[in-house]
């Protein structure tokens, strides 16, 4: 199957700082990428859907000015958590799907801890 | 590192036939979740299993969590065309720090 990488795999940052998470499709062109967050023992929650070259579509309740998503190329999408607070601490996972494909490939996730 | 294997990759069934997808983890899991992705959509949460040996049912869907909390299965009885999609399992490790998704099983149902 296709491979999606995420970087970093885990990050600790101080409250008020910004953190950027990268999601890369290594061997396919991801025309659509999804960003999720997950709290321990809870289900995945879709944050936004991004199509290459377009503005991301955010789910209700997700602050677009706080969670900046950029999908500038077919192999890279980034999620920037701006002015992070402890309540932003979570597991963030991305997935990508290619043009005309129903296959969805998940990244390994990024564990964010805000102190 | 921890791996979650899911089989089969694809399954074609005739409407009315049963379907099962299996998920196996290389390590003991804290819990396992199942998601369904309809063609063109994103994965939607179906259920979470936490207890060893747990069995849960949702209408025609039966979910099981193994005694060792390392494997799980999803069984659909008498499939319908609306069951078409990809079913993912996702296992959370015992430390609660990471969730690993299986590769998914894509179900095709022929009317």
Rg of chain B: 13 Å
- Helicity of chain A, in percent? under 10%
Strand content of chain A: over 45%
Structural class of chain A: mainly beta
Give the averaged pLDDT of chain B, no decimals: 92
H/E element string of chain A? EEEEEEEEEEE
User: Given the C-alpha coordinates, what overall shape of chain A results?
Assistant: globular
Uncertain runs of chain B with pLDDT below 50, 5 residues or more?
none
Shape estimate of chain B: globular
Walkthrough of the structure:
By secondary structure, chain A is mostly beta strands. Chain A is built from no helices and eleven strands. Chain B is mainly beta. In chain B, the strands form two sheets. In chain B, strands 2, 4, 5, 9, 10 and 11 form a six-stranded mixed β-sheet that branches. In chain B, strand 4 and strand 5 form a beta hairpin. Chain B starts with a strand and ends with a strand. The interface between A and B is medium-sized, with 20 and 25 residues.
Short structural summary:
Chain A is mainly β and 115 residues long.
Give the SSE map:
The complex is a heterodimer of chains A (115) and B (111).
Chain A: E1 4-7, E2 10-13, E3 19-25, E4 30-38, E5 45-51, E6 57-58, E7 67-73, E8 76-81, E9 90-98, E10 105-106, E11 110-114
Parallel strand pairs in A: 2-11
Antiparallel strand pairs in A: 1-3, 3-8, 4-5, 4-9, 5-6, 7-8, 9-10, 9-11
Chain B: E1 4-7, E2 10-14, E3 19-25, E4 29-37, E5 44-49, E6 55-58, E7 61-65, E8 71-76, E9 85-93, E10 99-101, E11 105-110
Parallel strand pairs in B: 2-11
Antiparallel strand pairs in B: 1-3, 3-8, 4-5, 4-9, 6-7, 7-8, 9-10, 9-11
């Amino acid at each position: 199957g296709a491979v999606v990488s995420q970087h970093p795999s885990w990050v600790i940052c101080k409250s008020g700082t910004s953190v950027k998470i990268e999601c890369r499709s290594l061997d396919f062109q991801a025309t659509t990428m999804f960003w999720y967050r997950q709290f321990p023992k809870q289900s995945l929650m879709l944050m936004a859907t991004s199509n290459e070259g377009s503005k991301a579509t955010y789910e209700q309740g997700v602050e677009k000015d706080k969670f900046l998503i950029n999908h500038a190329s077919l192999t890279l999408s980034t999620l920037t958590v701006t002015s992070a607070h402890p309540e932003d601490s979570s597991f963030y996972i991305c997935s990508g799907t290619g043009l005309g494909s129903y296959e969805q490939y998940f990244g390994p996730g990024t564990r964010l801890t805000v102190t | 590192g921890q791996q979650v294997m899911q089989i089969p990759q694809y399954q074609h069934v005739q409407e009315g036939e049963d379907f099962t997808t299996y998920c196996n983890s290389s390590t003991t899991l804290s819990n396992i979740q199942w998601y369904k992705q309809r063609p063109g959509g994103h994965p939607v949460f179906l259920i979470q299993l936490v207890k060893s040996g747990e069995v849960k049912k949702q209408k025609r869907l039966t979910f099981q969590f193994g005694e060792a909390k390392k494997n799980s299965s999803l069984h659909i009885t008498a499939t319908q065309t609306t069951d078409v999609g990809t079913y993912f399992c996702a296992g959370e490790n015992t430390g609660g720090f990471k969730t690993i998704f299986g590769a998914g099983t894509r179900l095709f149902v022929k009317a």
